[in-house]
Task: structure prediction
Amino acid sequence: MEDSAFARVEIVAFDIDGTLTDATTSYLGPDHGWTQTYSTRDGEAIIHMIKSGLIVVPVSRNKTKSARARMEGLQLPLEFMGVDDTLKAVMSLSRKLERALDVVLFVGDGREDADVFEKVGLGCAVRDAHPVALAAAHVVLESRGGDRVMEEISLRIDRARGARR
Result:
């Protein structure tokens, strides 16, 4: 799929584990729970996308304190975090925002994300995604999970819209 598909995007929804992170977790004990590492540049890219008028929403099964803290720090909505069914959540997000699914870009890495890719306008899999997700994706990104995925998405949207960063 050509980068022109990125020009139609109004909503950027994303999985957290394996997309914003490299799919590994560390247990810091009962006081802190599970933690993950996030790219500062992905955070900057998310802020840029919001400032450019995009709606950016995490849609993830992740229920960790660290993920919630990171998304809160980016001032992202938390309503679709800790969901059991990613596809149902994306469809609910689309209805809530009164936008068609064809203006939704969803980026993910897991087997369950393949169903979402089939319904949204632009399904993007990270380079190291599960084989089922790779096969279903409209676009396979150059970035691996946790390796500035949102920065790549932001740059591709900007390029498609003719914007300069």
Observations:
- Helices lie at 4-7, 40-51, 65-73, 86-96, 113-119, 131-136, 149-161.
